[in-house]
Design goal:
Elements (H helix, E strand, L loop, with lengths): L2 E5 L3 H10 L4 E6 L12 H8 L9 H4 L3 E5 L5 E5 L18 H6 L4 H10 L2 E2 L8 H12 L5 E2 L2 E2 L24 H9 L3 E4 L2 E8 L2 E9 L2 E6 L2 E4 L2 H11 L12 E8 L13 E5 L2 E5 L3 H6 L10 E8 L5 E4 L2 E4 L3 H20 L8 E2 L3 E2 L25 E3 L14 H14 L6
Parallel strand pairs: 1-2, 1-12, 2-8, 4-20, 12-21
Antiparallel strand pairs: 3-4, 5-7, 6-14, 9-10, 10-11, 13-16, 13-19, 13-20, 14-15, 15-16, 17-18
Helix pairs in contact: 1-7, 1-11, 5-11
The chain binds flavin-adenine dinucleotide and iron/sulfur cluster.
């Protein structure tokens, strides 16, 4: 059987591995180790912050090794997870179809979406978990004619403990993440190698022979007939550049800014994040207690149960680059204009809930949806294979997105990875 290496086990990698195992012998190479949620009491980071020990978001990996933060020159914290399940393990489990850019290119993901919606438990029936402040906020948004809708979420939320720790990894196995697809692939014979950080694709005569990977201090060659790169919107461009394949300086990250205020006993820090969404042109707004800001931002003060925060997630201009370990990304004047409009809207929502505008405070700008550095164009719509890649190398993650979504991308990344995997003809390799 032909051998395929899938690089990364997040949304794209796990979906591709599950799809390809059987037709191929799959090996998943994952840089991180087995994912473990952060189960320590939140009092520990709270004490550490009070003692002045937490001041840089990058320190998060000392507390929670799976979570990695890169700071851009402009002070934006770009967050991802490293380990089995990739960033899906720290996601808030929102499941939205966001394929408008692919439809415009003539790429149809609808079959894969339907199948995903059958194999993953997805439901917006979690109103029983909403605290009074969230219910009030939803009614306020309705009154303001903002068309809020309960967020479809992946998982078995009927058993959710409403602990509010989704972004730290669910300690109770309620929320779905891509380790479920990974386990299915492994149960059907796929191999999983953790601690294997792929550096480059090794080619000869225009075809990939395999990849070079680092295992601690050791480097080794992994042969393959087919290579699927799904190391995420930051990891995949690094591998491509190391392999001499050109990428585009079109990095987007979907920046997040929280607009918070004190609403006594809101309890949002112990509630499912992003229970509902308001869609606006160029951004979304959703209730979200920002643990990163509570750990590192000095304007976020105790008691945290009194903070009620609205997240803005921006569809930023695709302009930025990954260079080695550093990320070059800054917001354009247009991005800042949209962000100001969104801050104004969130301030209005707080005001309508009885909190004056001068009492709101902001969180730390962070981002967790990188992509866009090998964007699909109409030229790839038929083959789903990017012309810059060797014939037997495919990308299956958000690097292929032509534009930022400003919306949860996970379901769309998986639909894309499945559709691409199906298009690969085993006999033509
Ligand atoms: C806090 C947070 C909350 C989020 N919530 C949501 C949400 O509710 N809904 C939603 O749709 N999206 C959400 N997202 C975004 C979503 O999680 C990501 O967009 C998605 O997981 C990206 O999938 P991916 O396969 O491209 O990359 P990832 O899931 O990041 O997976 C990449 C994998 O590749 C591995 N890797 C990287 N480099 C290498 C290498 N060189 N060699 C081998 N392995 C490598 C990584 O360790 C990782 O496991 C959230 C993101 C964050 C940060
Ligand atoms: S809020 Fe629910 S899904 Fe999120 S971490 Fe807690 S138990 Fe898990």
């Amino acid at each position: 059987m032909k051998r395929v290496l899938v690089v990364g086990s997040g949304a794209g990698g796990a979906a591709a591995a599950r799809e390809l195992q059987g037709r191929f012998q799959v090996t998943v190479l994952e840089a991180g180790s087995e994912f473990r949620p952060f189960t320590t009491s939140l009092r520990v980071p709270e004490h550490a912050k009070r003692a002045g020990l937490l001041f840089d978001p990058r320190e998060i990996s000392l507390l929670f090794p799976a979570m990695r933060v890169h700071m851009t020159g402009e002070g934006m914290a770009v967050v991802r997870a490293r380990g089995t399940g990739g960033t899906t393990t720290i996601a808030t489990a929102n499941a939205l179809r966001q394929d408008q850019h692919f439809r415009e290119l003539g790429i149809d993901l609808s079959q894969a979406f339907s199948e995903l919606e059958k194999s993953i438990p997805i439901s917006a029936d979690h109103g029983h978990l909403w605290r009074p402040a969230t219910k009030r906020c939803f009614s306020t948004c309705m009154t303001m004619k903002l068309d809020p809708f309960p967020t479809p979420k992946m998982g078995r939320f009927e058993n959710c403990r409403n602990c509010g720790r989704c972004v730290l990894g669910c300690p109770f196995g309620i929320k779905w993440d891509s380790r479920e697809f990974l386990r299915e692939a492994v149960a059907r014979g796929a191999r999983l190698e953790t601690g294997a950080e792929v550096e480059s694709v090794v080619t000869s005569g225009g075809e990939a022979m395999g990849v070079m990977a680092r295992h601690g201090l050791k480097r080794s060659f992994h042969p393959a007939d087919l290579v699927i790169l799904a190391a995420g919107g930051l990891g995949t461009p690094r591998i491509l550049v190391n392999s001499g394949i050109e990428v585009e300086p079109r990095l987007f990250v979907d920046p997040v800014l929280c607009v918070a205020a004190r609403h006594p006993e809101a309890g949002q820090n112990r509630e499912i994040p992003m229970p509902f969404i308001v869609q606006r042109r160029g951004y979304i707004v959703s209730p979200y207690f920002d643990h990163l800001s509570s750990f590192f931002n000095r304007t976020w003060k105790q008691p945290f149960r009194d903070i009620f925060s609205l997240m803005i997630k921006l569809a930023d201009t695709p302009r930025g680059h990954v260079e080695g370990r550093s990320i070059r990304k800054s917001l354009t004047p247009e991005d800042h204009d949209v962000l100001s409009e969104a801050v104004g809207l969130c301030t209005d929502i707080h005001s309508s809930m009885g909190i004056p505008g001068d009492k709101v405070f902001l969180g730390t700008v962070n981002a967790g949806h990188p992509g866009g550095m090998l964007p699909f164009t109409p030229a790839e719509a038929r083959t789903l294979h990017h012309g810059r890649l060797p014939g037997n190398v495919y990308v299956a993650d958000s690097s292929l997105f032509p534009d930022s979504l400003g919306n949860p991308p996970m379901l769309t990344i998986m639909a894309l990875a499945i559709t691409i995997s199906r298009r690969i003809d085993c006999d033509q390799l």
